[in-house]
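Full entry
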Amino acid sequence: MATQGVLGAATLKEFEEGLHGELIRPGDGAYDEARSIWNGAHDARPAVIARCADASDVRHAIGFARSEGLDVAVRGGSHSIPGFSTCDDGIVIDLSPMKGITVDVDGHTVAAEGGLTWGELDAATQEHGLATTGGLISTTGVAGFTLGGGIGWLMRKHGLACDNLRSAEVVTADGQILTASATENPDLLWGLRGGGGNFGIVTSFEFDLHPVGPTVAAGPVFYPGERAEEIMRFYRDFARDLPDELSTLVNLITAPPAPFLPEDWHGKKLIALVGCYSGDPDEGMKVLQPIRDLGDPVADLVGPMPYVQMQSLLDALWPKGTQAYMKAGYFRELDDHAIKTMARFHQNATSPSSEIHIQHFGGAIARVGEDETAQGERQAPFVLNAIATTHEPGGGLETHIDWAQRLYAEIEPSLTGGAYINFLSSEGEDRVQAAYGVEKFARLRELKDRYDPTNLFHLNQNIPPSRAA
């Protein structure tokens, strides 16, 4: 691996002259901001950052990385939990300037470049009352979110983000610019639908769009944390017969000092039931009514709201610089053991900003054929995510990671053993294989052998090629 000391001024100047975008070096005024990523647990110092303006810049940067023997980190929205959006001593290929977007209103599709965030994409599509499944935090990048599956508020009606991916422009490790679609390189499209960033850098995505909003029935209801077991048992029954239009989340939290929560509840344990109904708002309010009827809520914020507001509802709780770790899996069933365990760990959380999420699958997710995409575990009823976070400088994240890992270990008998790529931390090849299963992992490795046989793109939830296996 090359280091920044090896990259001489003449070498960098030649590289810079071939870029349409911007080259940022250590010591430049923009360097510290350019190297920082969303997860404050990672503080890497790349040798160079290439802020790309177009696909030819990406190809140029890949060629430079290959010739200089540099590690390659790819940055879109920079929300990678394991910190794959940056690296020490290598090159960051930064897509964030690539913000092009074209909405085909009649065709119900959108073409989106790889540097867009979900807030930016939603703003453009909602001008026309259209949307596709996007991230729960509006600053999340479109690219990494989609390539890792894509769990969001529209998923039970319209599928995961990767299910809505029609085509993609991909720059491969050998510098080819390919289209992946149903008619061109369909094997590559299959791999991009959940297989992560293993096969190249996606510079443009084409998604299906659906009539959604601009107003939806949505929002959270908060109840006292001491009622967690009761509320989760209710939720288990409530989720059994929901219409596909309703996607829901249970969130076990410590109340933040937020203006929408009564001040005397700040710092106390709460359980939130959150929902978003993607159809008619009046009908949605009726479907959501049972989560509001459990008696004595701490706060009830369910109501008609703009879809873009729902998409950014959680942003304030997840600012850039949050130190975060996730330990996640799929429930076999939301049984009493799991409910009791989550309630206990909720009360004993080591950080006031750590959370436990339960997200409901089913609907359109389960109707996509298991072999149609690389995404695994489509038949699981719920997803668990134990999120250990702190906003404290030097904040002792290891203590909170231990809390999340102990929770997972105790709840594991209720889980399938599978993993969701976007919620994986750095957990090794076995967990990556668990995300796909043996057969899909083997198929993904064949794709890796074809498109990236030297594993240039290894800073990801990596599927190593055969020669590295």
Remarks:
- Residues 1-5 have pLDDT under 50 and may be disordered.
